[in-house]
Task: structure prediction
Amino acid sequence: MSQNISINVNYLTRVEGHGNITVEVKDGKIEICRLEIVESPRFFEAFLRGRSIFEAPHITSRICGICACGHTLASIQSAEDALGIKPTEQTTLLRKLLLHYEHLDSHILHIYLLVAPDLLGVTSFVPLIKSHQDVVRRALKMKRLCNELCDILVGRHVHPISAVVGGFTKLPSHNDLEEMRKRLIELRKDMETTVELFSKLKFPEFERDTEYVALVNDEDEYPLLYGDIGSTDGYRVSKYEYKNVTNEFIVPYASAKRTKWHRDSYAVGALSRFNLNSEKLHPKAKEAANALNLKPKCINPYLNTVAQIVECVHCIEDAIQIIEKLWHQGINYDEIVVPDLNQNGNLPQRAGEGVGAVEVPRGLLIHHYEIDERGVFKNANCVIPTNQNTHNIELDMIKLIPEIINQSQEEITLALEMLVRAYDPCISCSVHMVEVNLK
Result:
């Protein structure tokens, strides 16, 4: 049966930033199918040029108000790599703890405020205040608790203060550790209820096989802070080879770059991490995955949200273990934060380059810095998770439309919006193109 469809969504709701969906189908044939990123460029790489390497984490954390801690950690890792600084075990544990808090905070926001309304049949989070008051109260309680955890550890969640190149300017007290552990244990029950709720909700049934990309390592832990770049297609490279992975390219209707590796596109994010590293999840997270019927290799992009729920369980349990380890071995308050200068007052390592590769809530984040002998920026490059997902989303849309073409235009539009939302895009972070001229 021939179908003529015209869909123009300006702008997508319940995503961060401004993006459009444009679809034209004539006589059942797709003529246009685009995910348009329409925001202005951010210029963060240019902001860094001429600035001190020690300023980078505080500047780049402003790329995003949702994953500010993730950008901070990627920036610190890149800066320390360029300077030849190796963080201590204590610093590494605290950074892993901070990254867990970031994932919890961002995932809970996406799960409850952005995705749950679709699954519960309403147009936004607001109607749930009347129809599902218990869900709303739980979501707000969990979100507040995650913000408070970040406050205790690094001063605040949005643009953290105490996480810096070399370590932390403020270390948690024993009371801080006890308070964080108490709140994480409190979060457990609400997370169990979250798993139970979403195990009963129906996600769209759609599949498209693609290449899933995330950090991998040879350790027993679920890799978030360190690792090589791995693929479900069986490839693994060092983070220093990231440009051979991302292969960034542009399209004329988007101000964000796109990426591809061994296929026409690849995906990053919670589902990619799950597909590559599910065997390294905490046992309770594995139980949650079973309860939610999530198994690798999962190729339904709508279930990225389910993978986020599983990761939340993991982050809670692993964070508790980290706190207990820090408690038992004791915090060393004499750790040097600012790197030692040599006899000439210079940095430990002169001109150099560094790469930071960190798994933030939306996927693989890369910061690449080049500095001179004074520790001043010459160049910077940031590759954002949503950059890496945008082309994959569009190819998902192209496959999905023929499968649902007999539905109403309203149903097709909703399915496409839900598909984009499932990736939890951070569109403002992804905008890095100033001008595109294709001839």
In short: The CA atoms of residues 54 and 72 lie 11 Å apart. Residues 433-439 have pLDDT under 50 and may be disordered. The first strand starts at residue 5 and ends at 9.
